[in-house]
Each structure stands twice: as structure tokens, then as C-alpha cells.
Amino acid sequence: MTENAIVPVERIERAILVIRGHRVFLDADLALLYEVEVKVLNQAVKRNMKRFSADFMFQLTKDEAEILKPPVVTSSSWGGRRYQPYAFTEQGVAMLSSVLRSQRAVQVSIEIMRAFVRLRQMFQQNVDLARKLAALEKKHDAQLKVVFDAIRELMTPPAKPKRRIGFGGGEGP
């Protein structure tokens, strides 16, 4: 975490989800980070829809939203959301800071961008590690095959010449 971070890195990283193959933040999580109501955040987005193309933001389907709900939800008959949540990609989060126009939104967006960078770096390190592991496995598989072949050869009894039945003298009568 940087010295002047206003939101703990762990809190940001816990809020990142992978939906439809994209790393995203849900509108409710962003509203908590920006310290605004979800309604206010979504109204600001709707007033500036031209800034939020499909690769910046998308609305979850009913099934996707259902999967994300906690198993036990206590809500009155009038409570809860009346629409499906919005998911914001990294570019959408960057655009949100300009739409919300608050100093906190700018600072939180900077921290979120740093979290995305860290995730990309960790992913790249994992990819590199996987490549190295595959190379080692391939190399050692060949070496181990030679060892196992040698062990099998040693375990196989030598072929004994067939013993002739009868007296050991000359050949036949």
C-alpha cells in the first residue's frame, strides 16, 4: 500500500471480480469505495452514457446477479435492488472518476488502477512460472524415462539358453 492510500489495497483487491472474462467492480462496491450512494453513482453514469461503451461497463443478467447474491438475504418485501447491478471494467472505473468529479473519486480510481496493475504483474509472473515448470517437467520427463528404462532393463531377467533334455553327451543316437 502506498503511503497516502485512502483505501486499503486488500479492500480494493477483494472487490475485483471476474465476470464474462473481465476483471470488474460492481456498482455497489464502487459506491462504497467512493463513499457515495449506489443510486448517485448510477445516476451520474446514466447522465454520461456516451462515455461508457460496452467494454467499459455492462449490466449483469438476472442469473449472474443471482449467483453473486449471498446465500442468506434478509430483506423486506420493499427492500433490495429493483434492477440488475452494473459491472465496470478498468477503463470504466477510470471514466467514473471524471464523471463523479470529486477528489475522493480521483484518489480511489488511482488506487484501483494500481491494484489492476499489480494483478496484471502477478498474472504475468504466474504465466512465467508455469512456462518454467513445463520446461522443467519436459526436461525431467526425458531424463526420468531413461532412468526407468534402465531400471526395467535391470529388472528383466536375462534370457537363459534353453536347456536340452537328456544326456549331455553328443548329439542324438
Keywords:
4 strands; 173 residues; 4-stranded antiparallel sheet; 6 helices; 8% strand; alpha+beta; Mlu1-box Binding Protein, DNA-binding Domain
Your description of this structure?
The chain is of the alpha+beta class. The protein starts with 8 loop residues before the first helix and ends in an 18-residue tail after the last helix. A hairpin with a 2-residue loop joins strand 1 and strand 2 (22-26). The chain has helices at 9-15, 27-34, 38-47, 62-68, 90-100, 103-155; strands at 17-19, 22-26, 57-59, 86-88. The protein has a domain at 9-69 and 80-128: Mlu1-box Binding Protein, DNA-binding Domain, CATH 3.10.260.
Itemize the secondary structure elements and their pairings.
Layout: H1 9-15, E1 17-19, E2 22-26, H2 27-34, H3 38-47, E3 57-59, H4 62-68, E4 86-88, H5 90-100, H6 103-155
Antiparallel strand pairs: 1-2, 2-4, 3-4
Summarize the structure.
Helix content is 55%, strand content 8%.
